[in-house]
Design brief:
By secondary structure, the protein is of the alpha/beta class. It contains 24 helices and 19 strands. Among the domains are: 2-136, no CATH class; 164-315, Rossmann fold; 535-711, Ribonuclease Inhibitor (Leucine-rich repeat, LRR (right-handed beta-alpha superhelix), Alpha-Beta Horseshoe). Strand 18, helix 24 (692-697) and strand 19 (706-711) form a beta-alpha-beta unit. The structure holds adenosine-5'-diphosphate (ADP) and magnesium ion. InterPro entries: Apaf_helical (IPR042197), LRR_dom_sf (IPR032675), LRR_R13L4/SHOC2-like (IPR055414), NB-ARC (IPR002182), P-loop_NTPase (IPR027417), RX-like_CC (IPR038005), Rx_N (IPR041118), WH-like_DNA-bd_sf (IPR036388).
Length: 720
């Protein structure tokens, strides 16, 4: 990840050095020195990253290097902010017009000096780190950037499943059998990635099974297991809607009502908890089902299978070499001619053997090989040390996955590792993920390309590398959301260990470590350890109602803040201190209005306020959010005004709703400038459009990227 970070820093450094507003000579000198020091170190990083798996001091060295790189990035961003807000950004008419003011000039000079001194201190730190590198004798590794944009492999679907028909038949016969008394439990046991969930899915969706049971319920447990939690999940699957009950007794009584007289199949995927008493309590309401109802449990542990009182345990073992080969070659050779891959077959079969029948490994490594063209590249993977290192390191990480990670292009590495911020089994929204990557500066674009589009390509690439699964698309085939396999999640977490803190219910990570990216379940202090935070996501339908007043004083370098789903009604004015903020998600909160001070968030790119049912006002100064690209305000019934001047935000790509007002309010002509709008736009109060020329100014026909436009007109006048 250090590699990717340094790439970003170098990009930002060069952007300033080559930018329109040149820094003072002294600053420029320091920046150039920084740039050359980073470039010298960058050549060695690939080697350092491999060595760190085994060598802790290399890991520490890399950490120090990253700390410096992050600090540089923050200072550079401050430089940008200074220049964005001081009015010297004249080429950009989005910024308020400026006139020369001596006071401003000296203030700016002072800030420049301050920044210059900070850069100098940082550069000295970097030089020290640079000197240390000699100790490790890293070798230079030539960076091979593969820009492979072939989109040949199809997404994972049934047609990709190999083998398992025997397993299916056995498990199905156990499910359909009506002998025995009570409700049978059947367990599928096997190591991670071997295909338990897949087998469970196959039988769950089998026609005979579908016809046999009157109700089928699927619940995925991952590591979190509380009786109340599981019962609630079962209820939610049964009713098909969110469940607000939190009292076990009520939950169980209601579940009994729902399941009485049903012949049900309940799948509990990935059970970890082997506590027999808890299990018995959880199972109590399930006894009301009809005779012949079944519970199918998948678990990695034999012990759990016994604890749940399984009447039958089915061991899920690895696929045969031939089945693995079929799975592997369908990925690795996709889009190639037979004579092109004949010579690779022998090496390929040896690689497949190393996967020990684990389909997750086979699939992942198959995706890696698809990008390797020569026999030499193939040999290199076969001989990689990683197959052996990890077995010793016993990190629980599958070698094939780690190899696949190391074979990702640099820009994808950090995008992938960042995903570890989400808890296990979390539905990751594609759009949101791309916006979070944007906020962190992970996406590099060339002139003329849209950062959102490039981010979408990154996502698709990770998907092709088999890092995402359970893809869900809308009816037009656009991907909406996905998940990570838990082993892939473990891998991401292993890589981002020192940078990302993941909120998993029941697990509290130590606050003593200064993580860069955190997902949290609550906002309790102490906050001083959040000082280096760049991402804060509040997850798990948080019940917090108020943001601790001091919070924003401690997280000044934050790039992304997500408080969605909480019960907050307002944001403190101190939000203005988050000048680096790019992403703010307040969707589904009880927020009523936003503080006016927000207009100083000149970096903000995404402001998400979807489904804020109480929201009545946006700040008057919204038009000063000059970097804003996405203003998402879907389903905000109480929001009856669009702030005046919004037409100046010519970078806007998303504006979910526009409310037309009378002459002295926001009139429809403001849409004229917003030619980049895409997705969906809802225009309300069209009856208030007073004159034809105003409507013409809106230039609606120029909005080529819009997919949907919804027009509302309350009451027609004669002219309309
Ligand atoms: N028989 C199979 N053929 C092809 N792919 C498979 C097969 N079994 C599993 N997979 C793939 O391997 C990965 C891991 O499988 P999964 O069922 O999630 O494993 P587990 O639940 O045992 O951890 C998934 O991406 C799945 O699509
Ligand atoms: Mg599973």
């Amino acid at each position: 990840m250090a590699d990717a970070l340094i790439t970003i820093v170098l990009r930002n450094l060069n952007a300033i050095l080559e930018g329109e507003v040149r820094p003072l000579v002294a600053v420029a000198g320091e920046l150039k020195k920084l740039s050359s020091s980073f470039t010298a170190i960058q050549a060695l990083i690939a080697d350092a990253e491999t060595q760190q798996i085994e060598n802790k001091s290399v890991r520490d060295w890399l950490k120090k290097l990253k700390d410096v790189a992050y600090d540089v990035d923050d200072v550079l961003d401050e430089w940008r902010i200074l220049h964005l807000t001081s009015g010297s950004h004249v080429s950009d008419d989005k910024v308020r017009a400026c006139s020369f003011s001596p006071l401003l000039f000296f203030k700016k000079l002072k800030s420049q000096r301050r920044i210059s001194n900070r850069i100098k201190t940082i550069r000295e730190r970097l030089d020290e780190i640079g000197d240390e590198k000699i100790k490790y004798q890293f070798s230079e590794v030539r960076r091979v950037e593969t820009h492979d944009h072939r989109k040949t492999t199809s997404l994972v679907d049934k047609s990709e499943i190999r083998g398992r028909s025997e397993d299916q038949d056995i498990v199905i016969s156990k499910l359909l059998c009506r002998e025995g008394k009570g409700i049978d439990v059947i367990s599928l046991v096997g190591t991670g990635g071997i295909g338990k969930t897949t087998l469970a899915q196959l039988v769950y969706n089998d026609e005979k099974v579908k016809n046999h049971f009157t109700r089928r319920i699927w619940v995925c447990l991952t590591e979190d297991f509380s009786i109340t939690g599981v019962t609630k999940m079962i209820m939610e699957d049964v009713t098909g809607s969110a469940c607000n009950l939190s009292e076990l007794n009520t939950l169980q009584t209601q579940l009994v009502e729902r399941l009485q007289n049903e012949l049900f199949l309940l799948v509990l995927d990935d059970v970890w908890n082997g506590d027999q008493t808890e299990w018995e309590r959880m199972r109590l309401p399930l006894k009301c089902g009809k005779h012949g109802s079944k519970i199918l449990v998948t678990t990695r542990s034999e012990k759990v299978a016994r604890a749940v009182g399984a009447n039958y345990i089915h061991n899920v073992i690895g696929l045969s070499n031939d089945e693995c080969w079929l799975l592997f070659s369908s990925r690795a050779f996709a889009g190639r001619e037979r004579d092109e891959y004949m010579e690779l077959e022998d090496t390929g079969r040896q690689i497949v053997e190393k996967c020990k029948g684990v389909p997750l490994s086979v699939k992942t490594i198959g995706s890696v090989m698809q990008r390797k063209r020569t026999a030499e590249d193939w040999e290199c993977i076969l001989k990689s040390e990683i197959w052996a290192i990890l077995e010793e390191a016993e990190k629980g990480i599958i070698p094939a996955l780690l190899l696949s990670y190391y074979n990702l292009p640099i820009h994808l590495k950090q995008c992938f590792a960042y995903c570890s911020i989400f808890p296990k089994d979390y539905w990751i929204q594609k759009d949101t993920l791309v916006q979070l990557w944007m906020a962190q500066g992970f996406i590099s674009t060339e002139k003329g390309s849209e950062v959102e589009e490039v981010g979408g390509d990154y996502f698709d690439d990770l998907l092709r590398h088999s890092f995402f699964q359970d893809i869900e698309s809308d009816n037009k085939g656009n991907i909406i959301r996905c998940k990570l396999h838990y082993l892939v999640h473990d891998l991401a977490r292993y890589i981002a260990e020192s940078e990302c803190r993941t909120a998993d219910a029941g697990k509290v990570e130590p606050y003593s470590i200064r993580y860069r990216h955190s997902s949290l379940l609550s906002l309790d202090g102490p906050f001083h350890n959040l000082r280096s935070s760049r991402t804060l996501l509040l997850l798990g339908r948080s019940r917090i109602q108020k943001i601790p007043p001091k919070l924003f004083d401690h997280v000044k370098f934050l790039r992304a803040l997500d408080l969605s789903g909480s019960h907050i009604t307002q944001l403190p004015c101190s939000i203005a201190k988050l000048r680096h903020l790019r992403y703010l998600n307040l969707s589904r909160t009880d927020i009523v209005e936003l503080p006016e001070s927000m207009d100083s968030l000149c970096n903000l790119k995404s402001l998400k306020l979807n489904r804020c049912a109480s929201l009545c006002n946006l700040p008057k100064g919204t038009s000063k959010l000059i970097s804003l690209r996405h203003l998402e305000i879907e389903e905000t019934q109480e929001l009856k005004h669009t702030p005046q001047g919004i037409g100046r935000l010519s970078s806007l790509r998303t504006l979910s709703k526009f409310v037309v007002q009378d002459e002295d309010g926001c009139n429809i002509g403001e849409l004229g400038n917003l030619d980049l709008l895409s997705g969906s736009l809802e225009i309300k109060n069209l009856e208030k459009v007073a004159r034809e020329d105003e409507a013409r100014k809106a230039e609606l026909k120029k909005k080529q990227h819009l997919q949907t436009m919804i027009l509302h007109c309350e009451e027609k006048t004669k002219d309309e």
